[in-house]
Design goal:
CATH class of the domain at 2-141 and 172-197 and 254-266: Alpha Beta
Distance between the termini: 31 Å
Number of strands: 12
CATH topology of the domain at 2-141 and 172-197 and 254-266: Rossmann fold
CATH superfamily of the domain at 2-141 and 172-197 and 254-266: NAD(P)-binding Rossmann-like Domain
Strand order of the largest sheet: 3-2-1-4-5-6-10
Largest sheet: 7 strands, parallel
Order of helices and strands: EHEHEHEHEHEEHEEHEEHEHHH
Structural class: alpha/beta
CATH architecture of the domain at 2-141 and 172-197 and 254-266: 3-Layer(aba) Sandwich
Strand content: 15-25%
Bound molecules: NADP nicotinamide-adenine-dinucleotide phosphate
Shape: globular
């Protein structure tokens, strides 16, 4: 039995939904952890998943979901509560004797990272490691979907400076394919997995989506972002994230490398923005 969180699929990438579907298609038993018992949960049942309803931050709701589980996928959206959810999930996984937890982190998760969310992801990785649950940390680049959410009908307005600013990208679908691959892999695997599917510039990424890239002043972007995202935590993270790329501009960075694990474990070459 494989426990998959975020299985209903949300607005950031719906990685949990895709992981659940890939595993079901490949004949695995899946327990889909969802926050609410809505039409998405019903669709998962129809596809053959068992459904567990609960809040990932609430240990009393997480423990029962682990009954009979040997492997698990953990994702938690960019909003408040990551460390609460991590602690509950790691403790419940340890108690159940789980042998592998594949979890989504971010490309530069480290104590020195420039966004508070990335530093929290690093803490989250530590908690999973301490729990001894065979944690695999998928350190993902910016999802294509992140740019799509930021776009209007004709424009992609972001505070990234000149159009030749470099940006590492990945399709959420490729994150899900790698996650499913690691959940199926019987042998030992690398615990830290950087995931970048495409290195491009923000101007080229916008053009691939049929949009015109417009450089927005950081303070103007931050003001507008509250209207678009409605969550101060998300806005804080994105403001810092876009600030990093704006600062780096055309500079190369050691993390700016397409990673072969997408093809090796995900089973096909990385998707390219605008063509997926
Ligand atoms: N976006 C990016 O560019 C990017 C880049 C790198 C890494 N990441 C990482 O990717 C992860 C998010 O990706 P994703 O595609 O899985 O997000 P997503 O599509 O937004 O899905 C999140 C899922 O979690 C569920 N959920 C939210 N709060 C919950 C709670 N308290 N208890 C139980 N379930 C809860 C949501 O359910 P409802 O829909 O019912 O609310 C939804 O199904 C984050 O860790 C983020 O840091 C994102």
């Amino acid at each position: 039995m494989i426990l998959v969180t975020g299985a209903a699929g949300g607005s950031q990438g719906a990685t949990g939904r895709m992981v659940a579907e890939l595993l079901l298609d490949r004949g695995h038993q899946v327990r889909a952890f969802v926050r609410q018992d809505d039409h998405r949960a019903e669709e998962l049942r129809k596809r053959g998943a068992e459904v567990a309803v609960g809040d990932l931050r609430e240990i009393s709701q997480v423990i029962p979901a682990f009954e009979g589980v040997s492997r698990a996928y953990f994702t938690y959206p960019v909003t408040a509560g990551l460390l609460d959810a991590t602690a509950a999930f790691a403790a419940a996984a340890q108690r159940a004797g789980v042998e592998r937890v594949v979890e989504v982190s971010q490309l530069d998760a480290s104590p020195e990272a420039f966004t508070p969310r990335m530093r929290r992801h690093w803490l989250s990785e530590q908690v999973f490691d301490w729990a001894g649950v065979g944690a695999v940390h998928l350190r993902a680049a910016v999802f294509f979907e992140n740019l799509q959410v930021a776009a209007d009908e004709r424009e992609l307005g972001l505070p990234l400076g000149a159009p030749d600013t470099r940006i590492p990208l990945i399709a959420a679908e490729d994150v899900a394919r790698v996650a499913a691959g690691f959940l199926e892999e019987p042998g030992p695997v690398d615990p830290v997995v950087p995931l970048t599917g495409q290195m491009t510039t923000i101007g080229q990424a916008a053009a691939a989506l049929g949009l015109e890239y417009v450089d927005v002043a950081p303070e103007v972007w931050e003001e507008r972002a509250m209207e678009r995202y409605g969550d101060p935590y998300t806005v804080e993270h994105l403001t810092h994230l876009w600030g990093i790329f704006r600062f780096l501009g055309t500079t190369d960075h050691p993390l700016f490398r397409v990673t072969d694990v997408i093809e090796r474990v995900g089973g096909r070459p990385p998707l390219v923005i605008g063509q997926s």
